[in-house]
Amino acid sequence: MNAFAASVAQGAKTRSTRTREALRTACYFGSFEALTPVIGWILGTLLGSAMAHIDHWIAFGLLVAIGLKMIRDALRASERAQRQSSPGFARMALVALSTSVDAAAVGVTLVVLQIPIVMAALVIGGTTFVMTCAGFVLGGVAGRRMPRYAEGLGGLLLIGIGTQTLLQHMVFG
Questions:
Q1: How large is the average pLDDT for residues 81-92?
Q2: Can you give the pTM of this predicted structure?
Q3: Among 21, 134, 141, 171, which is most exposed with the fewest C-beta within 10 angstroms?
């Protein structure tokens, strides 16, 4: 759901909802969501549950930073220049990583539950891919209807995701 929400924000600030852009975004998010549980599984095998104690802080910090930058960019941009072409590799990778850091804790849990990591990673990545495509298209529709506010709302959405991730781990463990 974090990747879905972030893809809505990404779709809202991109010039078009072309299929190529939706698939590109879905590849980033799906790949990172599939890869981070594997990393968590490896770390869980090596380090135990130490990763689960910090992953939510990392996700929170990255998402708030990206969200604040999006809000700042939205406030500085003119109405006609609001929507952008494709974001670069570094920005997409950072957003995808930010939304999937907490999946590393899932990988740690998979070690404890003795669940095969390859199948779990494929299911997580595939589901994220599909949800991200849908979110990107939905965001594109919203961005065309309210282009002046799309990037700022996307930034707020990312800050909300980060806050939700932090609260979920702090309140519910």
A1: 65
A2: 0.70
A3: 171
